[in-house]
Design a protein that fits this description.
Blueprint: E1 2-6, E2 15-20, H1 34-43, E3 53-58, E4 67-73, H2 79-93, E5 100-104, H3 110-123, E6 144-148, H4 154-172, H5 180-191, E7 197-201, H6 203-209, H7 212-218, E8 226-233, E9 241-252, H8 272-287, E10 292-302, E11 314-316, E12 322-324, H9 332-347, E13 351-356, H10 360-366, E14 371-375, H11 378-391, E15 395-397, H12 402-405, E16 415-416, H13 424-433, E17 441-446, E18 452-453, E19 463-464, H14 469-480
Helix pairs in contact: 2-3, 3-4, 4-8, 7-9, 8-14, 9-13, 11-14
Length: 482
């Protein structure tokens, strides 16, 4: 959907949206229509709650056609409520037959107006590429939104919205279309010309580096693994480097420890962490972030052919540590551990944030409301929690402790890739922590319950949410930029 900003309401009959705060008055929103607006609000029990909508038709001036008007609740008037209102506007009009709308946010602060536009644009994202029999009523019609207001904050929010769209696309594409090699191709095409320095590692290069854990996951697939790294040098030489590392399992059968058939199709989005990193790097480059950031995506397919790794195998990681593979469906941590070692050896970041759809246990713990946060550094954890609250991609912190770490000691190797049934998300994080060098601030985000939604949300339709892009961008803006 095309977003434009303007200084005043255009003299058209396009749909007009007007924000109303919770408990606020509708008086004066449209000249001469106070009674009609008040009656519509009262009749539909509208009190301005964030995301609520009242729809009515207002008589046109001088005999012109009536104009469709929407009252949009913006709650207390904070930025997040405006974003929710933007999403509600799109949800109401997306397939309504309306092609263009105007939202009068002339009284809103610049960031609120930008968040409104971002919410509207993000809620408009759809993937219809393979749907050939949509009826007219199912097709998207809303193509343009004009926001009356200050556009000074829109450039950055537009960049983040583009990053969310890229992450959603990657998570939505079917696994016969998106696999490690084509993931790289699509991301490189998306970031072309933005000033990002790209590095791509092939299986041969990874084998030479000793990445036995990542390659062990990949060895059952006919699709070769890849590592894609995108580096953004927005703060100049010598500034601290932040690393974002994403799990990119483009399809996960579970390997020899195969998953149940029911619902296995969902495992096309087991690369949601890598998708979030790709989207975040796109956003940082598009808005010209004044920070040095490298995004690393470990890309594999986990399949159960005759060459697949077995439960009981021992693999040697790039760090030199050995891993007893107890469950081949605990593959994401095997991918991430070699990516963590590589980025630390090659690029020496001062802080690392990794993201992964890592454990089903995280969904048991938090459902689909928060991503899990684990960290060896309180300041880093606090910065990420604050970024989550501000961006809407919320996080909840979990503990790390020696008692949990001992649960993954192996009798025949340095570590095993799963612990007992209890505390499964924590022991997964403890596994990753073993590959973080001393002195490096590190955080792990388990986003298993967040990258895909079974129902519509405030700024997304059912399907891929793009979770992770917004919190990473906000974290970089608040904690990393010069």
């Amino acid at each position: 959907m095309k977003i434009a900003f303007a200084d005043q309401r255009p003299d058209t009959t396009e749909v007009l949206a007007l924000p109303v705060q919770k408990g606020g008055s509708t008086t004066g929103l449209i000249d001469g229509q106070d009674a009609l607006l008040a009656a519509a609000a009262s009749g539909q029990r509208f009190d301005g709650e964030a995301g609520s909508v009242v729809e009515l038709f207002v008589p046109g001036a001088d005999g012109t056609a009536p104009r469709r008007v929407l009252l949009l609740g913006v709650g207390a008037g904070d930025d997040a409520a405006y974003e929710r209102a933007g999403g509600a506007l799109t949800a109401r009009l997306l397939t309504s037959g309306v092609t263009a709308a105007v939202a009068d946010l002339s009284a809103a602060a610049p960031l609120a107006a930008a968040r409104f536009a971002a919410g509207a644009a993000q809620r408009a994202w759809r993937f219809d590429e393979y749907r050939t029999k949509l009826s007219d009523k199912q097709k998207q019609t809303l193509a343009a939104l004009t926001v009356i207001g200050n556009d000074s904050a829109w450039r950055d929010r537009a960049a983040v919205t583009d990053g969310v769209a890229l992450a959603r696309l990657l998570a939505t594409l079917p696994p016969n279309i998106l696999y490690p090699e084509t993931f790289v191709e699509r991301v490189l095409a998306a970031v072309d010309g933005l000033g990002l320095e790209a590095t791509v590692l092939t299986e041969a290069e990874m084998r030479e580096l000793g990445m036995g854990a990542l390659l062990g996951v990949s060895q059952g697939s006919t699709r070769d693994a890849r590592i894609l790294a995108l580096r953004w040098a927005g703060a100049g030489e010598g500034a601290p480097l932040t690393a974002l590392v994403g799990k990119g399992v483009t399809f996960d059968t579970g390997g020899i420890s195969i998953k149940p058939a029911a619902g296995m199709e969902d495992m096309k989005w087991d690369m949601g962490g890598a998708a979030a990193v790709a989207g975040a790097m796109l956003a940082l480059a598009k808005r010209g972030a004044k920070a040095n950031v490298i995004g690393v995506m470990g890309l594999v397919e986990n399949m159960p052919d005759g060459n697949a790794q077995r439960p009981g195998d021992v693999v040697t990681t790039m760090s030199g540590q050995t891993v007893e593979v107890i469950n081949t469906d605990a593959e994401g941590r095997l991918v991430l551990c070699d990516c963590l070692t590589w980025v630390q050896r090659e690029h020496k970041p001062t802080r690392i944030v990794d993201l992964a759809t890592l454990t089903g246990a995280m969904i048991v713990s938090l459902g689909n409301e928060y991503g899990g946060l684990f960290s060896n550094d309180d300041a880093l954890a606090d910065a990420l929690l604050a970024a989550g609250r501000a961006s809407g991609d919320q996080l909840w912190r979990f503990p790390l402790a020696d008692a949990y770490d001992r649960l993954i000691d192996s009798p025949i190797a340095d570590v095993k890739n799963v612990g007992p049934r209890g505390a499964g998300s924590i022991t997964a994080a403890q596994f990753l922590q073993r590959f973080v060098d001393a002195g490096v601030a590190w955080a792990h985000l388990d986003i298993a319950g967040m990258v895909w939604a079974d129902k519509d949300g405030p700024t997304w339709a059912k399907g891929a949410t793009g979770y992770g892009v917004r919190v990473l961008d906000r974290f970089v803006a608040d904690a990393c930029e010069a």
